[in-house]
Amino acid sequence: MQKERKDTPYMGTKESLPLWLHISCSILEFLPLSQMDLLKSMLVLILVAFIGCFNGESKLLDECSSDSDCEAGLYCFSCSQGFSGSRCVRSAITDQFKLLNNSLPFNKYAYLTTHNSYAIDGEPSHTGVPRNAFTNQEDTVTQQLNNGVRALMLDTYDFKDDVWLCHSSGGKCFNITAFEPAIDTMKEIEAFLSTNPSEIVTLILEDYVQAANGLTKVFNESGLLEYWFPVSNMPQNGEDWPLVHDMVSNNHRLIVFTSIESKQDTEGIAYQWNYMVENQWRSATRIYHIIMVQMPQLSVGRNPKAVIGVSNELQAMMAMME
Question: From residue 199, how far is each of 92, 97, 255 by CA, in Å?
Fold first, then answer.
């Protein structure tokens, strides 16, 4: 007497299945009943795992082949310096102000920071000459801000009688190393601050601008002076920064640091080493400078400083890509 077979749930025609599964189903038709039942069960488990891994359910750092493989909030990304192959990574940060609140001093939080934020893959030449300079970012500045970046490291230069963002050396910008006029990026930042009234953005300028009030002109024309955090309100002698919610209510939502000390007096732009420090991370061939994380009071030389916290790990990764 032939053994009765139990019906199995319909899963579509063989023609709708992947080729490897189609072949497997065909082989099953010729197997003895006991072996077929066993292999069919195994095949169903494999199919469930296959669908789960490649149907929008792959989790953080799981392998992937496309964005659709990853669960909500993740996308498929490859980074040879971080991991092999492609894996699901976060597309945006977790908002620390939603996890906690914004009642602490500004320096008590860590902020995601991008290095050479303007050096973007695919940025068209604005000089008419093909660019020959390293890039560090895949996202535009607007995309970076929308994805949770809250501090941007920008290199500012005198170029073409204006201020440009340039990835150059020796303090000189050239056609082949120029990215774009600084005003364009500043307008992106202004648009973000305008549409996100509770957010604060920090700019860290590697500054080569020598033109008198050159940076002030750019900040004024872009509308960013409306959000300016004045140097006079910055902490002294190791004090904490103002509370975040007070900075927001006063619309002091743009903090700018320059690498040129004299501009703190001439243009009211904070000299960065009065307010932050860097540690060093050494590889086999280079020393990388990394901005410290969440160090509200740190003695540097004779004067303790209040330090803005930024992402240590990201700084290390970005410095490696310089």
Answer: 15, 10, 12
